[in-house]
Design a protein that fits this description.
single chain; 287 residues; alpha/beta
Length: 287
Amino acid sequence: MPRDGRGTISNNASALPSFFIIGPPRTGTTWLHNVLSRCASLSHPTKETRFFDQHFDLGLAWYRSHFRRVPEGRVMGEVAPTYFASPLARQRIRGIIPQAKIVCVFRNPVDRVVSLYRLKRAYGLIRWSFDEALKNDPELMETSRYAFHLRHWKQTFGDAQVMVTVHEDIGSDPQSYLDRLANFLALPRLKLTSIELRRVLTSEDMTEPRHYYWTRGALLMSEWARRRRLDRVVATAKRMGGLKLFIGGGRRFSQLSPPERERLRKLFRPEVDQLEAMLNRSLAAWK
């Protein structure tokens, strides 16, 4: 075992994350993962282990294997947006890491649900139209129940261990946002680079897959590999451009019409009103 913290590596098998950024999905968690990887030990090379909601049966040894070569004294964490709407993940984290700090990032629910739908279409997870997906894909609506799930996370971990942030704050002042996050998670402060600042506002350019079954098959193969801890094979394939062969390449997604956006705003209004009251912050732009 190492005896000092100057660049030494810890192989402490008992080490577990002390914080979780739980999203929900499509709220800037990929950007956060990229930035925080400079000052915290995050799961690698896979951003999302899906351990506490999907792969719990594989055991803690499998989970810990995603955090190899952790520098001594460095804070560990996981960026895990799928945990937000999972009661199982919440209870499992509470049972194993009761002192964990939890970070939620909330985004205009209309923009977020459209973005999540496009991601799932682009990756071959679903084939439905947007309206069909709202009816048939539970994740789209369940992850939009911001106030409902936030209330349960606070009840489970306590107010002091749960930080609530708003996606717009990342775009308006990313450095200030990151400083507040670092203070809460007990991380060293970072100065954002010009590239990181630009990526905050990167527009989404996802398209439908060129061939749905190719994309679906590649996704299933990737999941098979990850369960067997072959993440590096998947990561290498991505770096070599393999992702472009299966993801996207089809037609661009159509934009929502004003009436469609208004229908969604009305659909999400009760949750937004409740969240507004919980945060004591105006979310009028979402309404």
